[in-house]
Fold this protein.
Amino acid sequence: MADKVRLGFVPLVDCAIPVVARAMGFAEQENIELELVREMSWAAIRDKLSYGVYEAAHLLAGIPLAARLGLGGVPVQHIVVPMALGRGGNAITVSTRLYQRMLEADPSAMHGPRGQSARALKKVIDEDRAAGRPVMSFATVFPFSSHNYELRYWMAAAGIDPDKDVNIGVIAPPRMFDSLRNGWVDGYCVGEPWNQRAVFHGDGVIVALKEDIWPRSPEKVLGVREDWVNSNPETVSALVRALVRAAEWADEPGNRAELAQLLSEDANVGAPFEVLKASLSGKPVLRPGEAPTEIPDRHVFYRYTATFPWLSQGSWVGTQMKRWGQVPADTDLNNVVRQVYRPDLYRVAVKDLDVAVPKHDWRVEGINDAEDRSFVGPDSFLDNTIFDPEKVI
Amino acid sequence: MGCQGVGVNLVKLEEYNILVIDENPDRAAIVERGLVESGYARVARIGTSHNLVERIQALAPDIIIIDLENPDRDTLEQMFQVSRAIARPIAMFVDQSDSTMIHEAISAGVSAYVVDGLRQDRIRPIVEMAISRFNVFDQLRRERDEAQAKLNERKLIERAKGILMKEKGLSEEDSYALLRKNAMKQNRKIYEIAQSVITAFQLEF
């Protein structure tokens, strides 16, 4: 009999891996009856996983860490991460009005590397302050989201204090686009298709992509309860294998049009095919009405170890939590990361497959010419810093 | 016993500001009525709004009851974290030892945020009331959906009978008997046969 696994997901391009695992038969091949349930909120998906409505979930990388630490006024939950679900496709989008202001305030910053575009935002903020205008509002998708950390990283590198110079609130992904359109926020950081959608409608301009901030930044992970892992180790392995195979399929350029079609269905992402295809084919449109930009690594599902749950990536997320005051300064983060991120489960699951795994679970991040460059992909932070997880305090 | 005890009890209950957030106004009304009838006088409800943070600050709730799947929860949780947005920290299901209630709440689709420090024994009846009202609403909705489905089935059968009477010259009674006979023979429902009849005749034109 097949093992039944209920998996909750949020409609974003990176739900592709579980969607493909089911639709293309990878789950079935592993004797798993995969039931997918679409959720509109991260809090809902976290609670349903925690209390047994789901066995598995598509989660933001920060959620299992926050759950282990009992952050956000939510009771401690033991969720573990046996694999990552690709690198997502985050971007920072601003309203067309704010884009025009940024362009006028600092044309050279806006024509330089996208990672530095916040310098123009800084000038707009300074103008507003001098004129006594209220601070602008930005949104991310959850307090413990890579989007929150990427947006803050981008701003801080340009001298903006994200806690004082702007308001950063939280809006669930499916509501982002309307919020920008209606003028409730001036910009946001969210996964695709919600950036590309704003551009296609002429309401927003993409000013930075996640790969401009840090291409290897962790995005979604597979979350499962620790007690479920302990009592169903073989099902966990089978699930990981099915999802790794699905990631491999989704990464294939020749499959991307079919993937866009699959994701466009209402039961999956439910966004227009054209919007999904532009992003998935690595040819996003960054400004309304302009020609697409070639960004072949826009969506990475499998290559560059995108499914491996790197401890150093978990550690980076933890460091950002500390940086922005979400966890007490004396928390032993790497110890928490070791409990939550479980590359051992990944290694066991794929040991008989033709899947390349790294030698170590940790690595120093941000050295673009590191020896393993071809294996892990481009790797540099927008401010050229290096992240050494051993030096995390 | 007696009036005095009840009076004291009511005063205590009235101390709480309860906020019900629900995109479904009918369900919110059912929950609100249940709470008011149980003696909680200060109950407010709001649907979805983009100025959620301001509205919550103005209402200063002690307890927020919100449907589990509401995307506004993501916004709320951020708000509870940022101390400048709301004065007091709020926790969900403060008492983890009460796992029965948590499971009942999750399965009913209820989530709750509570001002830190409120006594669990005084929160419990409020959350329980919300759970029971959510379940009642669910039951009502299921009954309504079933009634609607039944009505639709009856309409299909009526249409199929009309077609058979017109096209085959059968009486109403014989038309129904024909549908029923085929349903029994094919081990299907009568309305399914009716649907096939309608489809078949639609195809011809």
